[in-house]
């Protein structure tokens, strides 16, 4: 049975962009009392890969022309560098078909991880919620798209304790689940080296009570050191390699 890699962290934004950072990296409403429960939505089954490499999508009509262009730019990377082909719907989706729906939200950025074959409440859409700040960056849109394709945050890898140290004292308890490592029984890294620069990696001070101090430190020769992590420029080669492996792109050539 194919094991999936729980990779992830959310795409990273620079700590200097404090308002943008706050709205983006949480991927949940920071005031949401159900935040801890929602962060436990983890893909467990190979059946949660999208069944076709052609994935249909639509963009909410209240998105501006610039925001629409950013979604197109974000998805072009997957069309050009993997075997996946995102195709925008020009009319209604086929009966019973699942499609990705990029929706505008006041302040929420997030989506369910992996493919859900059972529509929720009769809807065929897999919703990706994006705030205006998230819609302003193709890299963040790519981060959320990688989630819906099946990737978790990078700091959640089963081998993450070999590479980073988490300072839970600097993290509100309700956000601790965001930093849980996964098990090798349910996930795999595809032997891709730990990637501090992954678009799926949290920034060094993610969820910090004191943002001047890191919540994640890198392990270098056994010592915890502060370094930059993550970015919002776009997927790294490691991020794209995992998608190619998950969707058997080598067999699709």
TrEMBL record:
Enzyme class: hydrolase
EC numbers: 3.4.24.-
Recorded GO MF terms: metalloendopeptidase activity; zinc ion binding
Pfam families from the UniProt entry: Astacin
Keyword S-adenosyl-L-methionine recorded: no
Gene3D superfamilies: Collagenase (Catalytic Domain) (3.40.390.10)
Signal peptide extent: 1-15
Presence of keyword Metal-binding: yes
Active site: 144
GO biological process, one term: proteolysis
Protein name per UniProt: Metalloendopeptidase
Organism: Drosophila hydei
Taxonomic lineage: Eukaryota, Metazoa, Ecdysozoa, Arthropoda, Hexapoda
